[in-house]
Amino acid sequence: MVDKSWEIFNAMSTNYGIQPFVEHYSCVATALCRAGRLSEAKEFVSNMPIKPSAKIWGVLLHGASEAGDVELAKFVCDRLFVIEPENTGNYMIMANLYAQAGRWKEADEVRDRMNDIGLKKISGRSWIDDSRVTM
Q1: Single pTM value for the model
Q2: pLDDT per residue over 26-53, tens digit each?
Q3: From its phi and psi, is residue 59 left (phi > 0), alpha (psi between -120 and 50) or beta?
Q4: Could you say which of 1.25.40.10, 1.20.1260.10, 3.30.930.10, 3.40.50.300 is the CATH number of the domain covering 2-116?
């Protein structure tokens, strides 16, 4: 899947003269993360000729979270905390990764940072609608 992603991505500009958008970069980063090639994904995103969006950093954060890569997650969160400082999800992912790694002091520091800027973890909710329509 990664090789095909690279092939299509590279063909955009070389074969078709199409400049890739951030969404195209995101697809390649996603493929790299899913293949477990996190350091390549980090390098790819870090060296993009266009400014990475929160969404593409989120791709890397998800990959780091899935792999339990605390250092990559910290690298990514350092950027996400600047881009979207009020996104509680980023803080919670980072705190949870620290906790899973037994790095309790750092997990507490992330939670304290949330509290200092007035953020609260939003409780998750879900429901099932079992309404049946009869005609």
Answers
A1: 0.85
A2: 999 999 999 999 999 999 999 999 999 9
A3: alpha
A4: 1.25.40.10
